[in-house]
Write a structure and sequence with these properties.
215 residues, mainly alpha
């Protein structure tokens, strides 16, 4: 990444997202039309609704690269300097999210609330509270960022959270009323996961660009 222009990096990452997303959508549509043995074997490997497969690896890798990029920025800031701790916090947080993407650690947040409908997946309740708390704690840090970096990271964050949290609401409603073993569920989940990959890609671009601008 160090030798790539930011624009080239963005295009290549989004091309990777497009490829993974398109393969997942194609697998879901093929599976909806056929029970052929080939698609039965491919679906768990390509579907964005499954775990421990190609899309999961891709998403987790993007988030891990974001964590490494944030850690690189933090390590370049002198000890005791302002915002160093915040950058390390971002690096650690992104590292955890990368691990969660691969291991589904957020599942332990489920089952604590008696909810249904759009809150069928009740883990979004504590997750929203955590995101709101972090947003409040990081507001001065975000304001202090260079304007270009701030805009890039906010756009990336809104897209990622839109997928990871907001899209869980219609997905929860659909799961409760229609079920999870159908094309509708798969397409909602596909859209959710695609947004997450786009957000992570744009975050990586923003972090790499910031690292170069301040070095």
């Amino acid at each position: 990444m160090a030798t790539l222009e930011v624009g080239t990096l963005r295009r290549r990452l989004l091309a990777g997202v497009a490829l993974v997303s398109a393969l997942g959508a194609a697998a879901e549509l093929w599976h909806a039309c056929s029970s052929d043995a080939v698609i039965e074997a491919l679906l768990p490997k390509l579907s964005l609704s499954y775990e421990t497969n190609v899309p999961t690896w891709f998403s987790s890798s993007l988030l891990l690269l974001c964590a490494l990029a944030a850690g690189s920025i933090a390590s370049a800031i002198p000890r005791g300097a302002r915002w160093r701790v915040h950058w390390w916090g971002i690096a650690i947080g992104l590292g955890y999210v990368s691990l969660d993407e691969a291991a589904e650690l957020h599942e332990h947040l489920s089952g604590h609330f008696d909810t249904g409908g759009v809150l069928y997946f009740d883990w979004v309740i504590p997750a929203v509270a955590i995101v709101a708390l972090l947003a409040a704690l990081y507001l001065p840090f975000v304001r202090a960022l260079p304007s270009r970096t701030r805009v890039r990271l906010i756009i990336a964050g809104v897209i990622y959270i839109g997928g990871a949290l907001v899209m869980e609401l219609p997905l929860g409603w659909w799961t409760e009323h229609v079920g999870a073993d159908n094309l509708g569920y798969a397409l909602i989940d596909w859209f959710e996961e695609t947004l997450e990959m786009i957000g992570a890609s744009l975050a990586l671009v923003a972090l790499v660009a910031h690292s170069r601008e301040v070095s």
